[in-house]
What we know:
Layout: E1 2-5, H1 16-29, E2 32-35, H2 52-68, E3 73-75, H3 78-93, H4 95-105, E4 115-117, H5 118-134, E5 143-146, H6 156-159, H7 169-176, E6 180-181, H8 195-198, H9 200-216, E7 221-224, H10 227-235, H11 237-244, E8 252-254, H12 255-262, H13 267-270, H14 280-285
Parallel strand pairs: 1-2, 1-3, 3-4, 5-6, 5-7, 7-8
Helix pairs in contact: 1-12, 2-3, 2-4, 3-4, 5-7, 9-11
Amino acid sequence: MKYAYYPGCSLHATAVEYDTSAKVVAKHLGVELWEIPEWNCCGASAAHNTDHLLALALPARNLALAEREGLDVAVPCAACFNRLKAAQAAVRGSEEMRNTIKEIIGMDYQGQGEVRAFLDVVVNVVGLAKIRDLVTRPLTGLKVAAYYGCLLVRPPKLTAFDDPEDPQTMDRLVEALGGTPVSWAFKTECCSASLATSRTDIGLLPIFRILRQAKAAGADCVAVACPLCFLNLDMRQAEVQRRFREELGLPIFYFTELMGIALGYAPRDLGLPKHFVNPLPLLEAKEILRHPATRRETA
Length: 299
C-alpha cells in the first residue's frame, strides 16, 4: 500500500512530532509514504484569503506531482487536506479551471487519484481490525477527547469522510487502541486558528472553551489531527490558564502519537518530549507505558 505523502510546512517545522509519529505508524501498518519531491506550501491560509487562483494553483502543483506517479495522496494536516481537496474539486468540476491551473503551474493535472486525510487512510483503508491486532500496549483507562477542529470534516461535500457535526473516525480509533473516547459537544468547534496570534484577546477564549469542555466531559487528554489545533491547545494552554485563572492540565496528542504508544514505541521515538504540556506523567499514572502483564490491578 503506497501513498504520495504531503507533509506541508508545519510537519517540517512546529509539528515535526506529527511527521515523525505518522511515519513510524505508517511503516508499522505496512503503508509506504512516498514524500512528494520538491513539494510547495499549499497556501493555507494566506493564499485563499488573498487570491483565489493562487489558492488553487499552489496545492494543485503538489497533486500534479503525485498524479505523475499514479498515487493517491495522504495528508496529515487538516488545513492542507482541506486546500488540496478544494484544488482537486475545482479541477474536476471545470475544464476551464483545469486549463487555467495547468497554465499557471506549467504541468498537467487532471484531478485523478484521491486526496485522503491520513486519519482516513489509517482508519478506513488500513482498517481498525488490523490496528487492534497490532496493539501491544492498549490505552486502558485513558479517556480521550477526540478533537477534529473545523477543517478536517468541513465542508462535508468536499472532505466527505465523516459526519461534519458528530464525527466518529478518531473516536473509533481510540477504542481500537484500547482507550475510551469521551462524548462531548466541542469536537468540531474552531480553536481560533491564527487569531490567537493576531488578536490574542479574542483568540484565547475559544481555546479555553474547548479545553474546559474536554475536561468537564471527563477527558484525561485531547487527540488532534491538525498542527494548528495542536499548537493552540498545547503551546497556549499555560497562557489560557493564566488569563482565565483556571487549571486545565490537559495533555494534547496527535492521534498518531497515541497510535505509536499503543503499538509499543517509546515516547522519544514519537516526539512526545517536544510537547509544552508534558504528557508523560499522565501515561505513567495510567501505566500505559508498561506492558499490560505488569500493570497493577485496579479496583
